Amino acid sequence: MQESDVALLEQIIKAIVEKPESVAISRTVDEMGVLLTVRLDDKDAGALIGRGGETIAAIRRIMKLVGIKANARINIKLDVPRRSKNAYDKPSIEDQSNNPREL
Q: pTM for the full model?
């Protein structure tokens, strides 16, 4: 089962993200079940999570069915590097000066 659950999850995620080469999945097994940790680019996290978490919830449901078939509990953890507050692009002063609402 080890190859099949990781391969299925990898195929689903690579079809969704813009940078499929940055996707890496690690698998660990303990008394709680199987943990699949997905590492991906921070810009792809929004596409994978989806609006309101709907996309990742659907992926988790699919993987839960795979786990039921193999008699294992599968959990998915997203490992996404966080961007700092300064990493976002702020509008420059020139962009602000072209405001048509200025007097």
A: 0.74
Rounded Cα distance between 41 and 79, Å, is: 9
* Grouped pLDDT means (10 residues each) for the chain, 103 residues: 84 94 92 92 89 94 92 91 64 59 57
Task: Write out the residue range of the structural domain in which residue 6 sits.
Answer: 2-82
Q: Is 102 helix (H, G, I), strand (E, B) or coil?
A: coil
Q: Which residue has the tokens 């702020």?
A: 90
- Asked if residue 53 is part of any domain, the answer here is yes
Count structural domains, the chain: 1
Contact 59, 16 (CB under 8 A): no
